[in-house]
Write a structure and sequence with these properties.
By secondary structure, this protein is mainly alpha-helical. The chain has 5 helices and no strands. The protein is elongated, with a radius of gyration of 21 Å.
Length: 98
């Protein structure tokens, strides 16, 4: 489709054109919907935002501002998702030096 609201299986189409039964399948928004929501959906996503979303999916971390991510990760027990993957770096001394 040329525009998101034309994709019959998307929530944008359902919210604008769906019958009551279809609309009942959608959850309410947890925050007020922006007045320019349709325009926001239509805008191309910057590559940096797509990369950030991809990282959040791969790492199973919340997506949002760094402060919001940290708050939600702490609340949900997901702080490990905010750390870099892999083993933590040591102090710089090998075991042989200790």
């Amino acid at each position: 489709v040329q525009r998101a609201e034309q994709w019959r299986w998307g929530s944008l189409w359902v919210r604008r054109h769906g019958d009551a039964a279809l609309k009942a399948l959608l959850s309410d928004w947890p925050v007020p919907r922006p007045a320019n929501w349709v325009q926001l959906v239509q805008r191309p996503m910057p590559q940096s935002e797509a990369d950030a979303i991809r990282t959040c999916i791969v790492r199973n971390r919340p997506f949002g501002s760094p402060a919001w991510q940290a708050e939600q990760a702490r609340r949900l027990g997901l702080l490990h998702t905010l750390r870099s993957p892999g083993r933590p770096r040591g102090s710089g001394q090998s075991r042989a030096e200790n």
